[in-house]
Amino acid sequence: MKSLEKCAFIAFFALVLVVAPGCLTDLGKSIYRDFFGAPREIPPEFVATYFDGPKVKPGIAVSISVTATGTKGHSSQQYFVDAEGYISMELLGAVKVDGLGLIELQQMLTEKFKEYYLDPHVTATFVTGGGAISPWGSVTVMGEVGRQGPVDMPATQELRLTQALLAAGGASPSANKRNIWVTRADRDGKQTRTKVDLVEIGEDGRADKDMLLKAGDVVWVPLSWY
Fold it and tell me: pTM of the entire structure?
């Protein structure tokens, strides 16, 4: 009897939420989101961002080497981009690098070093670890996981949903593993959501359903209400 009452209550509760979502309080909307696995309107914390490729920006580390005709030039050195988007280099002093791609950075530094070297050649690469943020972006994992927050993308740009969840400490026992949502933004900022069934991936062996994530994606693992 109790089981029937519980089912009736859930059915009634679901009906109310579907019929009159506009009348819900903030608490009701929160419950609605968790119960059905995804928000009807994407709140700010769920908004994904478009990743336009790796760029030099504050917190990034780059390794730069300079060679030139008739001299050894500079040996390879590592530079951290400061909060204002600058690196401090020998001879050049403070150089604004924020927002540049690696090729753009190399071209700019080559022009600057022509004042000091004959036919300079600059090579720049990203450096990871040591407190530097990932130049390849990150995805944000939220909800019922061990550690909410960003998960760095690898240099290969190959990060599956299950890998991101594992990096975030895994889904909690109370997570709704059948209704995991991935929000993605296109270049124009349009938000799209995709539902992924983690049980289908794991128990049914459907590796093809393990979504390939992109930098800027937001993964939402809702609470299970049953």
Answer: 0.70
